[in-house]
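Re: weekly structure request thread

Next one in the queue (116 aa):
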Amino acid sequence: QVQLVESGGGLVQTGGSLRLSCAASAMIFKLAVMGWYRQAPGEQRELVATITSGGSTNYADSRGRFTISRDNAKNTVYLQMSSLKPEDTAVYYCNARIDSLRRDYWGQGTQVTVSS
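Done, posted below.
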């Protein structure tokens, strides 16, 4: 049973922009803190940003190139990425964390490649 479906990855040049989307099932989306993580080759998965059901955001990097948002009507969370750099190249994963149920859901990942 697929719970999170990501889209929007691809190949972009340095300085370009991409928007990732993650559609979730309604029940999960309503309860979860939604987040984006990324994993570069040979590296550990790392937090990019999270957003609560009320819209509070948290970013691992505060330099302002990425923006996380959610559309509660569409059960979708977005990651707008701008001024992309080659070091942003990674597989980006959508995450839904429901603390009250001690549940953690992951999407299948979407590849983002930034060429120099």
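DSSP finds one helix and eleven strands in the chain. The two ends are 38 Å apart (CA to CA).
Next request, please.
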